[in-house]
Queue: 2 jobs
Job 1
Amino acid sequence: MIPQFHVWVVDSGGHVLLTKETIPPLANPRELARARSGEDVAVIRRNARRVIVPMKNGELMVLERTLLARGTEYPGFPLLIWLVVSIVSVALLVWPLSIRFTKPLRQLHSVVQYWAEGRLDQRAKISGSDEISELGSVFNLMAENLEKMLQQRKEFLAMISHELKSPISRLQVASQMLLEKANSDQSASVIRGMQTDLEESSKLIEQLLQLSRIEMGLSFTVMQRIDFADIIGKAMIQIEPTAAAAQVRLEWNEQRALPIDADPQQLERAVLNVLENAVKYSPSGSEVTVNTHRENGFIFCNVSDHGSGISSEELEKVFEPFYRGIAATGKEGTGLGLFLARRIIELHHGQIKATTNQPGGTTISIQLPASSTSEPSNPGN
């Protein structure tokens, strides 16, 4: 853009005395008054630069340098509108494209989250022939292969556990026969040690078999409306001999009318595992207390012992398979009891957690959704 220069000589009233221009100067009366007082006036505008210099006899010289043709304003506001319109237009063009590309990615992300939670039966439903669709197909194939591998592993574990039960049972019978015919205290002691190991192995195999059945969804076949108090009562009867041998008292604030929908056999196993764990880590002469109540549509069962307790770092780990903490040193066990209990409780849409008591001990808390009716059936029928 070529600048243009304009020159005028004006009198004190602003009338042009001398110029070659065909247009009048743009100086306003205020600028002229300042120049008449002897001040050099410089005015800067967006499209022009103007200088007014006082001369002799009150005359003034007006010099103007313009970048645009006189009368043409700088198009600032139209440019702003143009920028806004351009941004909106680009956004309208880009938005459909972004939806097209991000929607399948979001769908794939949600499916991958399901897989991370162990729900490998979910599939990414992405159609098309682009790279994202191909990626979705690869992910689906990967999920199918993983699902097959896990199913085969579960079936193999169930088969091995079932096949091991028979030889273990035969060994237990044989050890009992040997114990009856033992001719010395030393031989009897060795045989009793064998029986203890066989019993522990049998318990581990039974828990593995039970876990494999649960993972394959073969166990929860008898869902009934029952009173949770009946489940606790049966578990207490089963654990009583073990507690008596360990000189641990069992206390229960028996409360009825705790209706739930559950598989009685599986839920009883979960409660029994929790009770066995509490008795195992209770010192001789202490007690294990069981408290139950119903609140806000849920049934709660808290099993508390007075053992050495669990550190804060181990509270979540105790529900992991085969985990045995510091307190388990020298204690018999497989590390599957609480893990199996958690899986059973979760499959009943409940929750289980561990907390440390003060000054010592641990509380295992079970929370289950209460049934909508208060007329449970008898699980023994």
Job 2
Amino acid sequence: MTKPGEQKRVNNMLLGPLERPALNWMSAHMPSGITPNMLTYLGLAGAIMTFVAYGLSRQNRNYLWVASLGFIVNWLGDSLDGTLARYRKIERPRFGFYVDHSADAFTQVVFFAGLGISPYVRFDFALLALIGYLLMSILTYINAIVGGEFRISYAKIGPTEMRMIAILTNLYFYFGRSAAWNSPIGPLSNFDAVLLIIAVVMLGGFLVTAIMKAREWDKLDPGKKPGSPTGAA
């Protein structure tokens, strides 16, 4: 078992080669009065902005642009707070781990709940996608504690790519046309289908990754065999 701050960060995101230099540059040029905690609050404000904008999009679809801006603000705060702390060498591993991932959990709920109250997708599909995302997050935390590896991305997809997918989905909502049809699970639109695919991919990713890691730990941690108090063969 490992403690917060001892885990090896694995960040193989598709946009990583662009994101990391940008975050390092912003950290180097950040005014001294701006603290990592302020950036965490900024990320939360971006999430709330997205939630409110999704709700207001029931009245005017132009609020989808505000929702997308909220994703960008959230990315800026959420991605830069830890980078700034590491750049200034003021990391607080336990506090940072606790606050950062508590904020992440709240943000995920706010994002998907906002999407669910928008007029574009069914609320139950939004919750299904939220479940998939939370399961992947929980799996990440478990592997970080058990294996000492904090994996930020899976198949080159991490939080930044998920925000980009959300912004592209907003563009699809804005410029696309909704077509509805009946299905065995009730009325379904092409917008619903997009979210359902995302939910299935995340749920499937959780199952596959969880099974693979369980097999890996089963080999590395075989335990004692019956009748062998030392666990030796």
